[in-house]
Amino acid sequence: MAPAAPRTGEAIFASVERVNAELFTLTYGAIVRQLLTDLEEVEEVNKQLDQMGYNIGIRLIDEFLAKSNVSRCVDFKETAEVIAKVGFKMFLGVTASVTNWDAEGTCCSIVLEDNPLVDFVELPDTCQGLYYCNILSGVVRGALEMVSMKTEVTWIRDMLRGDDAYELQVKLLKQVPEEYPYKDDE
Amino acid sequence: MAAIYSLYIINKSGGLIFYKDYGSKGRMDTNDSLRVASLWHSMHAISQQLSPTLGCSGIELLEADTFDLHCFQSLTGTKFFVVCEPGTQHMEALLKVVYELYTDYVLKNPFYEMEMPIRCELFDINLTQAIQKDRVALLGR
Amino acid sequence: MIGVGKIKQYANVLDKPLSKGKQEVSLSAFAFLFSELVQYNQTQVDNIAELERRLEDAGYAVGARVLELLCHRDKGNRRETRLLGILSFVHSTVWKVLFGKVADSLEKGTEHEDEYMISEKELLVNKFISIPKDMGTFNCGAFVAGIVRGVLDSAGFPAVVTAHFVPMEGQQRPRTTILIKFAEEVLRREASTYNRIVKR
């Protein structure tokens, strides 16, 4: 049976059940607030948000694969394009683009045109070190790890911190497909 | 009448996380099903190495005298396979549906721990509906 | 430079025009986020009652903000002063904005004067969640109960709000009831002021 053709981000987003972004935004705000209360240190909150994103990413990847019909990417360039064009679109309804490739093709930037996490949000003086959207970096990292890519994902530009855009840097560290015999076999 | 005998889901380490027996044939106890799943996991991996072509993704269909086995492996390594009557149609489509039910009712469940056996009521309910809708399952219970 | 100019920058977030509330995200995105909210809170508690309380508290802050947002945007800053008014607001407006539909039903409790119930066949937040048998009657809808409490409290109608599964005859899945028990001061105020003006 021939594999089904890959679908565009727009097509998938139009076909799935959607909710008001405000429910999403306000719920995320509640999470950040809980973390700030529980952990107090902004650096700890940044780490926890990234971890939570990672936990989401390792689960979200299967839905991404199931709905997008994307087959194994030929190279990291294709991977980044697919994250930006299909991934961000089908889940967040956000248009994103890939830029700033390095010479080896292992490091690039994903720039978001929109960001539903940050509606109504302003960082107070006490939280200037907070990477409010750090959950997104964790999601990308977790998702890629489940398809055998170890990456480092960091925020290069964050509008809540005074920059002019939302830019995520994704750096491929290692590609490790699991091959038989697996390491934990006797 | 074309029938589904059983459905298995294996995590990426080869552990059985879901097993449903739909018929009276080949009924297995827990230990047997765990062993069989683990064996299939290894066979699937070996088949990728045996393949003369590059980039083989493992066994998708196994046809025997008394049954067919259709297997789908996601890019994350989770395997979904169904044992059915020889010649049963639309099994790949069914596996795709099961994969989507898994991404909804298992992975979105906060009480489900990754890689562990699936015990999600909504997954069971929706899976039963999907199988019944196909009208190919022989519910022997 | 890519990205510059796409999202307009404002010196002050208060200058930014209030969104019309038409933007959407996938239900999956919300479901994964909510699942993580529940999972995180599970690590912070020792028992189910505490988990419920933490989810309710998380919802409370959402409720307070939703009230501000909707009062300003959809109600032209008119303030609800009647009990049935605020209940109707929650059952219809708040539900429509947050969950895409009005709630299935709004009923007055038969046993107690201070109780009202908003019911849903299946709460949006519970759509993909199966509660393990060993968690008894726990309902993640505690988050929604918190939202309702946040709205009511901020509108001047303090209440205790809880979420309950109610088994339905002939249905495989129970429905969820959000039980609202108003504080005594609310009922006194309703009885005194309004019954004098309008006899119902």
Automatic annotation (TrEMBL), chain A:
Known SUPFAM superfamilies for this protein? Ligand-binding domain in the NO signalling and Golgi transport
User: Does Endoplasmic reticulum show up as a keyword for this record?
Assistant: yes
GO BP:
Golgi vesicle transport
**Domain of life (superkingdom):** Eukaryota
What keyword terms does UniProt attach to this protein? Answer: Endoplasmic reticulum, ER-Golgi transport, Golgi apparatus, Transport
Q: What does this protein do?
A: May play a role in vesicular transport from endoplasmic reticulum to Golgi.
Q: Which family does it belong to?
A: Belongs to the TRAPP small subunits family. BET3 subfamily.
Protein name per the record: Trafficking protein particle complex subunit
The organism encoding this protein is Corchorus capsularis (Jute)
From TrEMBL, chain B:
UniProt-annotated location(s): Endoplasmic reticulum; Golgi apparatus, cis-Golgi network; Golgi apparatus
Please name the GO terms of the biological process aspect recorded for this protein, alphabetically. endoplasmic reticulum to Golgi vesicle-mediated transport
In terms of CDD domains, this protein maps to: TRAPPC4_synbindin
Q: Any idea which UniProt keywords this protein has?
A: Endoplasmic reticulum, ER-Golgi transport, Golgi apparatus, Transport
How is this protein annotated for GO cellular component? endoplasmic reticulum; Golgi apparatus; TRAPP complex
Q: What are the coiled-coil residue ranges? A: none
- What single Pfam family name could you report for this chain, choosing any that match? Sybindin
Q: Which residues form the signal peptide?
A: none
Q: Could you tell me which InterPro entries the record lists for this protein?
A: Longin-like_dom_sf, TRAPPC
Q: Which domain of life is it from?
A: Eukaryota
Under SMART domains, the record lists: Sybindin
Q: Which family does it belong to?
A: Belongs to the TRAPP small subunits family. TRAPPC4 subfamily.
Quaternary structure, per UniProt, is: Part of the multisubunit transport protein particle (TRAPP) complex.
- What's the name of the protein? Trafficking protein particle complex subunit
Origin species: Corchorus capsularis
Automatic annotation (TrEMBL), chain C:
According to its UniProt entry, the protein's GO biological process terms are: endoplasmic reticulum to Golgi vesicle-mediated transport
* Name of the protein described by the UniProt record: Trafficking protein particle complex subunit
Q: Where in the cell is it found?
A: Endoplasmic reticulum; Golgi apparatus, cis-Golgi network
Q: Which domain of life is it from?
A: Eukaryota
Q: Which family does the entry's similarity section mention?
A: Belongs to the TRAPP small subunits family. BET3 subfamily.
Quaternary structure and partners: Part of the multisubunit TRAPP (transport protein particle) complex.
Q: Which UniProt keywords apply?
A: Endoplasmic reticulum, ER-Golgi transport, Golgi apparatus, Transport
Under the heading CDD domains, the entry gives: TRAPPC5_Trs31 (cd14943)
GO cellular component terms?
endoplasmic reticulum; TRAPPI protein complex; TRAPPII protein complex; TRAPPIII protein complex
List, alphabetically, the InterPro entries matched. Answer: NO_sig/Golgi_transp_ligand-bd, TRAPP-I_su5, TRAPP_component
